[in-house]
Amino acid sequence: MHLEENATYEEICAQLKEMYPKFQEIKGGWLLYKSSGGWGSRKLTLIPPDESGYNAKNLKTATNGFKGVIYIAPLQIELDTTALPPESESFNEMPKEKCQRCGVSYPLLILTTHINTCVTSEDAEQTGDEAEQTNDDADQTSDEAEQTKQGTCPICQKEMSLDVIEIHASFCMGDSVQPLELNASMEEPSTSGVYVPLTYTAEPSNAAKATSMSHDWKIEPDKNKAASLYTKEIIHQHETGKSLLMTMDVRMDKEDQDRELIAFYKQNGIEWACPVKCKLQGDAAIGEGVTRHFFSTVIQRLQHGFNFNMGNTARTCLFEGEPGHLVPSSSQFLIESDLFLVAGRMIGHAFLHGGPRLAGVSQAIVHVLLGGSAETATVQIEDCPDHDIRETIKLLDGEAELGSEEYQAVLDLSLAWDLPGPTKENRKWLFERLLSHAVIGRRLRQLKQIRKGLKETRVWPLLSERKDVEIFLRENENSLTPSVLLQCICWPSDISVNDDDDDDNEDCSLEDRCRISWYLRHFIETASSSDLKNLVKFWLGWEVPEGKMVVEVVNSEMPKSSTCFNVLRLPAHYMHFSNFKDDLLMCIGTSEYGFGLV
Questions:
Q1: Is there a contact between 372 and 389 (Cβ–Cβ < 8 Å)?
Q2: Do 337 and 271 lie in a common domain?
Q3: Which residues belong to any copy of the HECT domain (predicted)?
Q4: End-to-end CA distance of the chain
């Protein structure tokens, strides 16, 4: 639409009515809007009219020289947007062509739309006949289906008539018994009854077992066993899926290795419950022990930070704060990089496969993360990782009068977080609000990302259904004690261990086995929790004790382990505990860097 430089309101209206015939029907006033914005979103902004209405000068200024699109918005009626008929005067000057089906001339502008919807009288009659025939066929099919309705027994999965499926299912025990046979006497009422066997010796079918186990984790009283039942069921359902291949080059530096971990867990559209295959490039180790090593490394990086610089820090820590009071970092750079979504995937993936768990997270954060309300969370002052903010908030704890500088510090913090200044009446309330915002309010986006990651790894139904299951360890539960480890160890028996394929496994005397076993027990009883974790990691591949950890005494130079089989092989040549301890500490210290390094 072209406007003259000095066009008035009346001239603009006349030109609009000439170009858009439906504009003539607008009554009750109208206004003009222009669009603004970008990147997928548009916002309409009103173009205010002058005292005499819209004119060319007014519109030129508002649209930067008649650039862009102007929208007409009626004030009291709704504009009719249906297509004009082909004989409309608006199409008089447009080129037209006849429709080859109905013979009516249409403007080229709307001919394409007409062709897709054109229906002649013959087509209408044919369509009506086909619809009538379809209805007749449907009626006939429904009558036949009504006569021969079939159903499937939920236990044995066999089809039979709906008339008897209820009786059959009441006594069906799957494939272990013969199906109930139907005879002529059962089709009509009878007073003699039906003979049904009451005792069976065979076990239920696999289908029946799967049905009965599907909800066992919901009613299992032991929370750890319930978690094990759930994770095993999820993994079993996806055991035929495409395996996830996790690779890491141990020849790289720590920074590049950590970037590989982040890149793996940043992938979208991954089914995390599928089988996991791990490979260490530069290391000959294979098997389940390598998989355990991966999960141990993942949780260790979440616990202590990744070895690369993001946000001007030597180590990138996704969780910060004191042990037992860890909270997600408030770094906007980490949030925008979706690294907390990565953290949620890591936590859920390790938990799903029975691996280590993140320890020491604030209980207030855990409460909100798992669906609790921020108002009901118990927040402690130690949960605030920023010591400057913590000291400012602590000024409100108590009844001591605030000095001028203390009052100003609290006031500045309150105003920065859209809260009122401190008074005697709101002092306790303000203390709780500031503390809650410092710990939870500033981390809602991080928690949302972590929750999304947990849902993607399919552990969320367990956490939402079983509130007693803990996916995060408390700080006091993170330490490994000698009593816990000793209960899992299977000590060498007086039966000799012999393996014809390995010269190291030649028979050792009973005296050697007893002496080395005592050395190991004494080491466990006197070692620190950190050393015990390194021992278990060297033994199994991760720091989670298994139910059966085997000790073998063999003829070799240094301690070795077979992580896939949970076997620790100790040399028999040690005659002094100090020598045994030094070599064992040296060996277990290499578990972080790979396998076969001793």
A1: no
A2: yes
A3: 556-598
A4: 83
CATH code for the domain in which residue 573 is found: 3.30.2410.10
By C-alpha distance, which of 410, 414, 390 is closest to 402? 410
> What's at 304, amino acid-wise?
H
Closest CA to 575 of 518, 533, 521: 518
Residues 555, 500 contacting (CB under 8 angstroms): no
Of residues 104, 78, 79, 73, the one with CA closest to residue 91: 104
- Its domain, for residue 447, covers 233-378+443-465
486-518 pLDDT, tens digit per residue, is: 989 998 874 444 444 444 445 788 889 999 999
What are phi and psi for residue 357, nearest 5 degrees?
A: -120, 150
Which of 28, 48, 74 corresponds to the end of one domain? Answer: 74
pTM for this model (two decimals)? 0.61
> Could you give the angle at the alpha carbon of 291 between the alpha carbons of 446 and 356, nearest 5°?
50
Radius of gyration of the chain (CA): 38
- Number of C-beta neighbours around residue 222 at 10 A: 10
Kindly state whether residues 507 and 552 are assigned to the same domain.
yes
Residue showing tokens 């027994």:
153
DSSP state of 410: H
Distance CA 513, CA 158 (A): 59
Domain count, the chain: 5
Question: Which of the residues are catalytic?
Answer: 564
Contact by Cβ (8 Å): 64, 26: no
43 shares a domain with 19: yes
With 0-12 / 13-18 / 19 or more C-beta atoms within 10 angstroms meaning exposed / middle / buried, residue 418 is exposed
Residue matched to tokens 């299977």 = 490
Tokens read off for 224: 């750890």
CB of 76 within 8 A of CB of 27? Answer: yes
Using CB atoms within 10 Å of the CB of residue 60, give its burial: 0 to 12 exposed, 13 to 18 middle, 19+ buried.
middle
Phi, psi of 36 (to 5 degrees): -145, 160
Give the three-class secondary structure for 73: strand
Which residue bears the tokens 């030597």? 314
pLDDT tens digits, one per residue of 333-380: 899 989 999 999 999 999 999 889 999 999 999 999 999 998 899 999
Q: Are 283 and 595 in contact (CB under 8 A)?
A: yes
Residue 280 in 3-state DSSP?
strand
**Distance, CA of 83 to CA of 86 (rounded, Å):** 9
